[in-house]
Amino acid sequence: MAVLETYNGYPLWRYIPSLPAAAVFVAVFSILTVAHAWKMVRHSMWFCIPFFVGGFFEIVGYVGRAVAHNATGELIPYVLQSTFLLLAPILFAASLYMTLSRVIRAVDGAHCSIIPPRWLTVIFVAGDCISFIVQASGAGLRIMAGQGKSNINPHLGSYIIVGGLVFQIIVFGIFIFTGVRFKLLFQKDPKAIRTGRTPWKKILYMLFMTSAAVMMRNIFRVVEYAMGSDGYLFTVEWGVYAFDASLMTITMALFWVWYPSQLKPAVGDGGLEMEDSPGRTESWSKHKARGHRER
User: Fold this and answer.
1) How far apart (Å, rounded) are the C-alpha atoms in residues 284 and 237?
2) SS in 3 state form for 149-200?
3) What segment(s) does the record annotate as region Disordered (predicted)?
């Protein structure tokens, strides 16, 4: 029978992690991650690699929770679930940022975006990297404090994580505003009628729904860490599955259903379209076809 233990006298867990719940989400995220890998390779959508890696992080995190069911006094399972589940949504967000840039490029709608497409990915992914580093540093400090390091403030790691999450929420809020503003402006533009079969509206709706899911998850984590290790959300398990596992499952499922494969990823890295003028971009296939006609 599983019992609640301590690590060097420090309680890593305030409850015994559910083995069945963790096993279910290991299976769910394994299926979704394999499905994403299949679509990514099939359509050469290499800019979705961060999304795939995020799915892998989710698998590792819930494997850690499953192992911890009978090992609440061991550090490694706790570190795996704590760190990997904390950082996975940052990787999902990176692909969402790049998808918006490709939507704008695919419909030639740069004039309707408050941030030029060529800078949109750079700005938001840079913010993502900063958030990743800050949260990873905070997670590391929490682990060190849990090992009984007397020279480390036991609350410092949580404060740093909260700071990284708040920064991520701000960046994500700006991203959502950018996407919503683009949609409102572009749908009134004459070019919107000439977008052909590019499902830009469906992909934008997918981005809005997945962004809302990631945003809600981040708010939950901010509240969780702000309440402290003795707070209510750290002493119950249902919050992790209701406001993290379920929301990230929805994010991966929606992204898979409305996969941005019709945005014509460019040659080379599958993500950078060719530019022939400051206000216009073309996919590699159109550029190549034009070259044949000229010859």
Assistant:
1) 49
2) CCCCCCCHHHHHHHHHHHHHHHHHHHHHHHHHHHHHHHCCCHHHHHCCCCCH
3) 273-295
Q: Is the pTM of this model over 0.90?
A: no
Tokens of 3: 């019992």
CATH tag for 19-263 (out of 1.20.1070.10, 1.10.287.3510, 3.40.640.10, 3.20.20.70): 1.20.1070.10
Give the CA angle between residues 149, 228, 223 to the nearest 5°. Answer: 140
Q: How far apart are CA 245 and CA 55, in angstroms?
A: 11
Query: Per-domain residue ranges for the chain?
Result: 19-263
Token pair for residue 250?
Answer: 């929805």
Both tokens of 140, joined, read 């590391």
Measured distance CA(126)–CA(120) in Å, rounded:
10
Separation in Å, CA 15 to CA 7, 18, 236: 14, 9, 7
